[in-house]
Amino acid sequence: MSKRKNRTSQQPHQPSHVCFPLPTVRLLQEALRTFERALWQKPDALPNVAFAKQVVYCLKTKVEDLLQREDWEQETPLDANEIHILSAGMQMYLLELMVSGQQEALLPCFALCQHFSQLVEHVDAKQAERRG
Questions:
Q1: Above 50 in pLDDT, residue 6?
Q2: pTM score
Q3: What are φ and ψ of residue 77, in 5° steps?
Q4: Is the residue at 9 inside a domain?
Q5: How large is the C-alpha radius of gyration of the chain?
Q6: What are the φ and ψ backbone dihedral angles of 33, each rounded to 5 degrees?
Q7: Is residue 12 included in any domain, yes or no?
Q8: Least confident piece of the model among 1-15, 60-74, 78-92
Q9: What is the DSSP string of 95-118?
Q10: pLDDT value at residue 9
Q11: Residue 114 CB: number of other CB atoms within 10 A?
Q12: N or C, fewer C-beta in 10 Å, the chain?
């Protein structure tokens, strides 16, 4: 049994793959902008802020690449850090929409928040399984 556990813990972390249609990509862009604005207000001396800025930069590049795609059925790999940041960004953007009264975007944003919350739970469960 311990050999099996050891073997699985040595496997590299496989990123999750997700398909994003155009309206979702536009929501992701807004969520990243919202997250990035909040992130730039934090001092770099705080733990993980520099790393988070690097992850956001990579995510912005991925989202821009998504907009240039011709094949919208192609899946996009996202690692655990990217999933957590997108989830947090979507939640922040949802709050921003609620405060500003932009009703038309609330429902799609809420649905995407739920989707990313499920992805976060899945990623966290995988990470806990690998640790223990």
A1: no
A2: 0.79
A3: -75, 135
A4: no
A5: 16
A6: -60, -45
A7: no
A8: 1-15
A9: HHHHHHT-HHHHHHHHHHHHHHHH
A10: 38
A11: 12
A12: N
CB count in 10 Å sphere of residue 15: 16
What's the Cα-to-Cα distance from 53 to each of 1, 8, 14, 72, 132, rounded to whole Å? 40, 31, 22, 27, 30
Q: Is there a domain that residue 4 lies in?
A: no
Within 10 angstroms of residue 89's Cβ, the number of other Cβ atoms is: 26
pLDDT of residue 56: 95
The yes-or-no verdict on residue 20 having pLDDT over 60 is yes
Run of H or E residues at 10: none
Helix axes 22-40, 49-68, angle to 10 degrees: 160
Distances (CA, A) of 83 to 43, 57, 80, 119: 23, 14, 5, 7
Domain membership of residue 3 (yes or no) is no
Structure tokens at 124: 């966290």
Count up the domains in the chain and report the number: 1
Q: Are 88 and 35 in contact (CB under 8 A)?
A: yes
Residue 120 belongs to domain spanning: 20-131
- How much is the pLDDT for 17? 66
- 32, 89 Cβ separation under 8 angstroms: yes
